[in-house]
Amino acid sequence: MQGLRSLLFVAQMYLAMLLLGLVFAGFAVFDRRAAYTGVRTYSRYVRWTAGLMVGLRTEVRGTIPVDEVLIASKHQSFLDIILLVSVLPRPKFIMKDSLRYAPILGWYAQRIGCVPVNRGRRAEAIRQMMAGVRAGHALPGQLIIYPQGTRVAPGAYLPYKQGVAAIYEELGQPCVPAATNVGLFWPRKGIYRKPGLAVVEFLDPIPPNLPRGDFLDRLETGIEARSNQLMRDGGFTGGGLPTDQPN
């Protein structure tokens, strides 16, 4: 029965993306603020229907960033994106260039200021984004990056990439780490959704201008330790969690 509920939930989630995307598009063409309202409305709708249809409750903990900051988040599935977008005032992501061409999703991503990058040209894209903000052509906001570069299943380990440190240095802004356990309930692949409490938690900000090694150590230690605890709280039973991994 949970499998059927999951299937129905996923089907209506993508139908809602289409319908809400069309509803807000006419406004978002002329005003980027309407694009933010549209993606936030959709994300909150997904959270509501996840609890209603598959018993998956969601919670965002910690102090929600509202200023212009870098957010470095653990990434386990599409649900952590949904949770971040549902609460942040002006979220924008570092994303693969190919996602620009995704139907609806790609257009809205560009309207809210997401930064599409090709491999090896990330620093250039960030400089262009910051120049646009300073010139008044783009809205300041919360820039989100996934420091491991991809979705990582609970219990798996991937090293943190140097790219997040390069962006931290380029921006000269505080970095807010974010931990999560969403992969326990909403996996990277497949449609099965488990009931439970999925959490994204904002941690204490890391001040700007730390040496690169110190920043990466502090970032990885904080995110991994808190994510591990959230996964234990969520009932993780898949073996040892990746703790004290080498950089």
What distance lies between the first and last C-alpha atoms, to the nearest angstrom? 43 Å
Overall pLDDT level: 88
Order of helices and strands: HHEEHEHEHEHEEH
Shape: globular
Taking the sheet with the most strands, its summary is:
7 strands, mixed
| Helix count from the secondary structure assignment | 7
Number of strands: 7
Low-pLDDT residue intervals, each spanning 5 or more residues: none
- Which structural category fits the helices and strands? alpha/beta
The fraction of residues in strands falls at: 5-15%
Radius of gyration: 18 Å
- What topology, given as strand order, has the largest sheet? 1-7-6-2-5-3-4
Q: Quaternary arrangement of the chains shown?
A: single chain
- DSSP helix fraction: 40-55%
What do you see in this structure?
By secondary structure, this protein is an alpha/beta fold. It is 46% helix and 15% strand. It has a 7-stranded mixed beta sheet, sandwiched between helices. Helix 1 runs antiparallel to helix 2 and helix 6 crosses helix 7.
Question: What tags apply to this protein structure?
Answer:
single chain; about 250 residues; alpha/beta; seven-stranded mixed β-sheet; 7 helices; about 45% helix; globular
Chain-wise SSE layout:
Blueprint lengths: L1 H27 L3 H23 L1 E6 L8 E4 L4 H10 L3 E6 L8 H7 L3 E3 L4 H14 L6 E4 L16 H10 L3 E6 L15 E7 L9 H22 L14
Parallel strand pairs: 1-7, 2-5, 2-6, 3-4, 3-5
Antiparallel strand pairs: 6-7
